[in-house]
Write a structure and sequence with these properties.
By secondary structure, the chain is an alpha+beta fold. It has a domain of 71 residues. The protein contains 18 helices and 19 strands. Strand 11 and strand 12 form a beta hairpin. Belongs to the SusD family.
């Protein structure tokens, strides 16, 4: 890693470029004595926030962070191939010269060095406002190190002695640290977040770091470490602060439209605004997930397994996070159909006439049923005598045969097609952190109590005991399913699966299964669970050891 370049860039950001970035809400002001005054310290801190957002219509830290963390999961289905290296995140064909990974690394360390500049130079104890700003930089550094170590280092549960990422804690251009261990990085993350927690005493709103933001992230860090009691403790600090509340069931259906300041559940989010951050919308995260008002590529959709999971409760308010794109006839009515997934993991659709006859390969077959209630299944017997199970639906739009389930969770803020302010922490996660911690402690009652808070808010049935679980499902499975439903497309799923030593099951339609040697299931010990260290960083700093 060329830390000399990053230090230079970070100082420029802090001293000069912050004035050029000038984007709400992290806009900047001039100051000759940057780090000795509150205004100057705010300018430098704004530059660090702005680094995470990037410029209008340009990818930066948050954009690559989302694609690195969300694309290699079982929540998404890509409908074609692309020359964009995001494809390598999606299909677990990681490459060491992926410019998106390199940019994520670069922006992370550039911002870390910007934080170091403030941590080294700013004087504590001058005023609560200045201490608050110093604390925000401790938080940002801890947050970035946490994401870095989870992207490039193996899960903590697989051994803290594995290689993590460099701990760059100074602005010294001669300080070129090798990769620290995963455990050493986690220790530093804890130190930074706790320092931030102590220093931050002024809550400036959920678009800035705060004491509660540090506590929320500490809850997650401890959960990843399986330090269960501390995870519960820090969850409770946020929950009991009284500063946040869950949206109602009704509000949840329109939650994607809310800016962070209008969402009482949001603890910390990176604020994006229409005028300063939103261009034409095509190259946003949401632009890949949906076409809205003729804006966006709409090429990556909700996965079949996620849809099946959430459709277990058709009344689930979280179904508003995605939307099937149905075809209509000349009268504007949806067209009844059945569909299934064939042995090649491809969708097949067939028109359904009078709710009775399946039209397939220009032949007509009777739709039949077996079982009842929750076990009711539809099928027909084709001309070869094959019993084909299927699902009732309506004919849908498709791309290359992949059904268009547009994802809206990263779009629609304030009515703009793909404006979105990505969440770092929100209150629902804290209840689910507690649920997972209690599940691992064997405390079924408290685990279900916290799961049920989230399920009740979603408008679906709750669990009284393990007797209510689907057959073969354990308590931890229930918690992880709820995390998947609630935190979908927020960058949690990959880590939730692999840190719990689960297998990522991607046996569903999508181009990740195209070609030979496709990964249908990815074991938690697989080499590609983590990214390669960017090749260009190793070239300029040979003491960085590459991942296998």
């Amino acid at each position: 890693m060329n830390f000399k370049k990053y230090i230079y860039s970070a100082v420029c950001v802090a001293l000069v470029t912050a004035c050029d970035i000038h984007r709400d809400p992290y806009n900047s002001i001039n100051s000759d004595d940057l780090l000795s005054t509150e205004a100057g310290l705010q300018t430098a801190t704004n530059g660090n926030y702005a680094n995470l957002k990037g410029k209008k219509d340009e990818s930066a830290w948050f954009d690559d962070w989302h694609r690195i963390t969300e694309y290699p999961t079982d929540n998404v289905s890509l409908s074609g191939t692309t020359t964009d290296p995001l494809f390598y995140f999606y299909n677990f064909r990681n490459i060491p010269n992926n410019y998106r990974s390199s940019r994520f690394w670069s922006y992370s360390y550039r911002t870390i060095v910007g934080c170091n500049q403030i941590i080294e130079k700013a004087e504590r104890g001058v005023s609560p406002a200045m201490d608050q700003l110093i604390g925000e930089n401790y938080y940002l550094r801890g947050m970035l190190l946490f994401y870095l170590v989870n992207v490039y280092g193996r899960p903590y549960s697989q051994g803290p002695s594995n290689l993590g990422v460099p701990l760059k804690l100074s602005t010294d251009v001669k300080d070129l640290p090798p990769r620290a261990t995963v455990g050493e990085v986690y220790d530093q993350v804890l130190l930074d977040l706790k320092e931030g927690e102590e220093l931050m005493t002024i809550n400036k709103g959920n678009i800035y770091a705060s004491k509660e933001a540090a506590q929320a992230l500490l809850s997650r860090v401890y959960l990843y470490m399986d330090n269960l009691d501390n995870s519960i403790t820090y969850s409770d600090k946020v929950i009991n602060s009284g500063n946040y509340e869950l949206l109602s069931t009704g509000q949840l259906t329109n939650s994607v439209e809310l800016p962070p300041e209008g969402n009482p559940e949001e603890i910390f989010a990176l604020k994006f605004t229409k005028d300063s951050d939103y261009g034409h919308g095509w190259y946003t995260v949401g632009g890949m997930y949906a076409t809205i008002k003729n804006v966006g590529w709409g090429e990556m959709y909700a996965s079949k397994t996620f849809i099946d999971l959430i459709n277990q409760h058709p009344e689930d308010a979280r179904k508003s996070y995605f939307e099937p794109q149905y075809l209509v006839n000349d009268n504007g009515q949806q067209i009844p159909s059945v569909f299934w997934v064939n042995e090649d993991w491809q969708y097949v659709q067939a028109e359904l006439i009078d709710d009775t006859y399946v039209i397939y390969n220009e032949e007509q077959y009777n739709l039949q049923t077996e079982g009842q209630d929750d076990n009711l299944k539809y099928y027909f017997v084709d001309g070869t005598g094959t019993k084909q199970y299927c699902e009732k639906n309506h004919l849908m739009e498709h791309r290359n045969g992949y059904l268009k389930y547009f994802i809206y969770k990263c779009s629609k803020q304030e009515g703009e097609p793909h404006l979105w302010s990505p969440t770092v922490s929100r209150l629902a996660e804290l209840y689910l952190n507690k649920a997972e911690a209690y599940a691992k402690k064997g405390d079924e009652a408290n685990a279900l109590k916290n799961v049920n808070i989230i399920r009740e808010r979603a408008g679906i049935t709750t669990y009284s005991s393990a007797a209510d679980f689907p057959e073969g499902t354990q308590l931890l499975d229930i918690v992880l399913q709820e995390r998947r439903l609630e935190l979908v497309w927020e960058g949690h799923r990959k880590f939730d699966v692999f840190r719990n030593n689960k297998t990522m099951d991607r046996r569903y339609p999508g181009t990740h299964l195209s070609g030979s040697g496709a990964y249908e299931q990815i074991e938690p010990t697989h080499n590609r669970v983590i990214e390669f260290i960017p090749e260009d960083q190793i070239l300029v700093q040979p003491n960085l050891i590459q991942n296998p």
